[in-house]
Amino acid sequence: MKFDFNKLKEINDLDFEQVAVWPFEVKTVVVLFVIILSLVGGYYGLVKSKLPLLESAQNKEADLKLTFQAKYRIAVNLKAYEEQLTNLQNDFSSMLKSLPTSNETPGLLDDITLVGTSAGLTFRLLNWQREIPKEFYSELPIEMEVTGGYHDFGQFASEIAGLPRIVTVHDFEVTQEENTLKLQVQAKTYRAAVDNETSTSVSKGGAK
C-alpha cells in the first residue's frame, strides 16, 4: 500500500470519535506518536530512576570480582604463604634472641669494654643512659667516649657489629686531642618490651 503524505494534511480536521474511518496514513502517524510518547514516558518514569541502582550493582559486581580474584590467588598460593609465615616467625624469633634480656644488659658493657680495649682504645666514659620505651621494644642508649687512632675506631665499630647481641652505633664525633684522637659516640641496644610473653607467643605461632 502506497503511503500518501497528502492525507496527513487532514489530521487537524479529524474527529477522534471517528477513529475507525481515519486514513491509513493518519493512523500510522498517530500510532508512531503514541509509541514514542510511551517509550519516552517509560524511560523517564521507570528506567531513569533505576539507572543509579544499576550502576551501583555494576560497581559492586566489579569489586566482588576483584575480591574473588585476590582470595583465589591467596588460596592457590596458600602453602607458599604458610611457608613464608613460618620463615618470618623463625627469623623474628632469632632476632628476639639477639636482643639482650634484663639479666644480660649489665654484662653487655663488659663486652663493649673488652672489644674496645682489644682494638687499642682507652675508655674515658661508658654509661647507660635513660631507657626509651617504644611500642614493641625498649631502646637502651649507651654513652661512650674513647681515645685512640682512626684504625682503632674502625676496628672497634666492626667488632661491636659482630657481638652476639644487637648493638648499633650513632652520632660519631671525632676530635683531635694533643697526640691522639677522641671519639664520642652513642651506642644503642634494644630489648623486647615483654621478653617472656613475646618469646612465648612467637614459639606458639611457629608451632601452628
General form: rod-shaped
Structural classification: alpha+beta
Largest sheet geometry: 5 strands, antiparallel
Strands, count: 5
First CA to last CA: what distance? 86 Å
Overall radius of gyration: 42 Å
Low-confidence spans: 195-208
Primary descriptors:
208 residues; alpha+beta; 5-stranded antiparallel sheet; 6 helices
Q: Topology, pairings included?
A:
Blueprint: H1 24-47, H2 51-76, H3 78-97, H4 105-118, E1 122-128, E2 132-133, E3 137-148, H5 150-161, E4 167-177, E5 180-192, H6 195-207
Helix pairs in contact: 3-6, 4-5
Task: Describe this protein's structure.
- By secondary structure, this protein is α+β, with helices and mostly antiparallel strands.
- It is 52% helix and 22% strand.
- The chain has six helices and five strands; from the N terminus they run ααααβββαββα.
- The chain has helices at 24-47, 51-76, 78-97, 105-118, 150-161, 195-207; strands at 122-128, 132-133, 137-148, 167-177, 180-192.
- Strands 1, 2, 3, 4 and 5 form a five-stranded antiparallel beta sheet that branches.
- α3 (78-97) runs antiparallel to α6 (195-207) and α4 runs antiparallel to α5.
- The longest helix has 26 residues, at 51-76.
- It is rod-shaped.
